[in-house]
Amino acid sequence: MGYALFAVHDSACCVGYRVQSDKKVAVCSVHPSEQxxxxxxxxxxxxIPVSKSYHCTPKCFSDAWQHHRVLHDRAASAVNENGNEEExxxxxxxxxxxxxxxxxxxxxxxxxxxxxxxxxMYPAAVxxxxxxxxxxxxxxxxTYTPTADDIGHVLKFECVVVDAETKLPVGHANxxxxxxxxxxxxxxxxxxxxxxxxGSLDADGRITSSGTFTVLSYNILSDSYASSDLYNYCPSWAxxxxxxxxxxxxxxxxxxxxxxxxxxxxxxxxxxxxxxxLDKHGYYGxxxxxTNEVYNGNINTIDGCATFFRRDRFSHVKKYEVEFNKAAxxxxxxxxxxxxxxxxxxxxxxxxxxxxxxxxxxxNNQPVDNPGKRQLLCxxxxxxxxxxxxxxxxxxxxxxxxxxxxxxxxxxxxPMLVCGDFNSVPGxxxxxxxxxxxxxxxxxxxxxxxxxILRPHSKLVHQLPLVSAYSSFARTVGLGFEQHKRRLDSxxxxxxxxxxxxxxxxxLDYIFYTADSLVVESLLELLDEESLRKDTALPSPxxxxxxxxxxxxxxxxxxxxxx
Length: 563
Hints:
Blueprint (H helix, E strand, L loop, with lengths): L1 E7 L4 E9 L16 E2 L1 H5 L8 E2 L2 H6 L1 H13 L6 H13 L10 H7 L13 E4 L2 E7 L14 E10 L5 E12 L11 E3 L17 E8 L16 H4 L1 H15 L3 E8 H14 L2 E7 L13 E8 L3 E10 H12 L5 H8 L4 E9 L14 E8 L7 H21 L4 E6 L7 H8 L29 E3 L13 H4 L13 E2 L4 E2 L2 E6 L3 E7 L4 H5 L16 E7 L7
Parallel strand pairs: 1-6, 10-11, 16-17
Antiparallel strand pairs: 1-2, 2-7, 3-4, 5-6, 7-8, 9-22, 10-23, 11-13, 12-13, 14-15, 15-16, 17-21, 18-21, 19-20, 22-23
Helix pairs in contact: 3-4, 9-10, 11-12
């Protein structure tokens, strides 16, 4: 099969495009580059998407069973209430451990299972036959996004110059062959978990509670950092930005958060992709690009922090931009001797930034008329320096941000959220400052302070009553929460990880909130390491960042005294 596309190139000529594909085959759901030989009967009977039922070898199916059976379990719970059909379809899988599979797929069976019944996939009216090939026109643009009907095809992109007046081809056609189209991986949805045991989930998995809002924090992995050398375990197609951006957008939009805090968003990707795409879904965006005193590459590819909010839930009141480079300059001017300023700035100037946004909640999509009843919310979004040998710089950046937030809190009694990638593990000095409001003078991180910018240690305090949202899992009781508690570090009550690569696993990302004005209602469930390690680490075809997204639902409560 093939497809023809045509688009105007300039005033003198046209450029015609064709996409051609060959015979369809079923592909493995675990190893999409391999042809399927086995199909899970349970998936077929339970009407689980057919693409998830295929496996390339018996060993592939056996190895994937622990993850694959989750599909069965979730489908089984929705089959019916009396359990009869559930037993018929799923009983043998749950009992035998490795499931039931059919014999090797024949070419005809493989092809038939991927068709849309007896209905042709493309209208016959637009077919063209040439040399035994059939062509279909599917668009008139320079790009083509494969659809579900293209799975199993090899596509050929054909480009030919056409004279605008005579409509005749000029010169020879240029063609590009793709590898076989594979189904886009679709990870199992992450659920929102009520943490107080009193909420109730609606059909969409959201908490039905008045006056609540959700906040997402996610380091999406900038394309400029996503090198094949660093992430060589991730297939090149899954590491490419055209694939990752669509997968990230699908994931982000799927969470339906009221407020979205993203880190590592490239300047050009914000302007050309995330801002316009999220605008279609009702979001308004604000962006702060990193400064470029250290960075010497293309200014358009510098990353930064982007904060989006639903226009029907909030309106923008004020924005503050924190440039740690400017704070470093002020610090060195005030504290560092002239002879040491250059080396001090070399250590402190790292281009990191923070974006602070003050929002006003809307009621019925309208601002509150009574100024005394306005509900304001302050949301900070930051990405702290990554270098592990600069412990003093990390702590100084976090302290600087918190001091700025304290000034905002002093001018208005306002709930606060502090989100981002802090590049600091639980128990580190920056985490202690955020979570405890101070740093123990004997903390080992304080030993790294060549510029003496952390002294006296007594100044490393703040008065904001910040609590980590995900620590709420540790305070819940009941059997239903045990699996979630197992994904927390028992010492710090933080997630065991938010960042997973081949060489590192740990928590670097957090959502902190002021506990005197906000209450956690629910949390997005955490992932288990085993499910991610089947692809070695992150990013992977399923998850397109080396970090995982964090999401919390909050409810405003009566204000009490500050810490």
